[in-house]
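Budget justification aside, the reviewers requested a transparent look at the raw inputs and outputs of the sequence design task funded under Objective 1. We therefore reproduce one unedited record. The lines immediately below are the structure tokens for a 185-residue chain.
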């Protein structure tokens, strides 16, 4: 499980107008200015505000929220540590039911497993699901280029800017020298 720290982001939908009529819907749009986020020990910086837009629809059993998350982040390349900009554009669909109204056992299981989310009163908080969608859209290893050569493990030189003067073979641990003889045969 990834841990992340994020500045306070509200992302709440006021759905009182939707609750009385099945099929009714409303559009929403949020612009949240986030500076940075801690993500698995790394820092992600946001180059532009987080844009969340979509619709919320009363589907009878609850409120179905469909939307798009759009932003741009800056992180470090996983090989050479140079800064990299990455676009985040992720669609999401989430279902919300009023707390205590998941009556059928199948729906209750879905709520327990996080497939359906509960809300209280007339407000749905979509912050957690939006942030999860941002994190899911980020590659596990962000690279500046698919052919990035990384840094030399001995001297630390960025190998994208040229070769280093370290020998290819490197030093062998004396405890492993017997194995080298075996491979030389």
């Amino acid at each position: 499980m990834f841990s992340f720290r994020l500045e306070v982001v509200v992302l709440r939908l006021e759905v009182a107008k939707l609750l009385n009529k099945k099929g009714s819907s409303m559009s929403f749009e949020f612009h949240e200015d986030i500076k940075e986020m801690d993500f698995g020990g790394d820092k992600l910086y946001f180059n532009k505000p987080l844009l969340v837009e979509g619709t919320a629809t009363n589907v009878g059993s609850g409120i179905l929220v469909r939307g798009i998350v759009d932003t741009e982040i800056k992180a470090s390349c996983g090989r050479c540590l140079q800064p990299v900009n990455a676009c985040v554009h992720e669609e999401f669909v989430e279902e919300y039911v009023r707390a205590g109204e998941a009556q059928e056992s199948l729906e209750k299981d879905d709520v327990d497993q996080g497939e359906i989310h509960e809300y209280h009163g007339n407000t749905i908080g979509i912050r957690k699901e939006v942030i999860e969608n941002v994190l899911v859209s980020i590659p596990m290893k962000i690279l500046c280029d698919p052919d990035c050569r990384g840094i030399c493990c001995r001297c630390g030189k960025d190998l994208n800017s040229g070769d280093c003067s370290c020998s290819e073979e490197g030093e062998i641990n004396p405890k492993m020298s017997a194995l080298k003889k075996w491979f030389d045969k």
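The longest strand covers residues 83-98. The chain has a mean pLDDT of 82. Computational costs for records of this kind are itemized in the attached budget.
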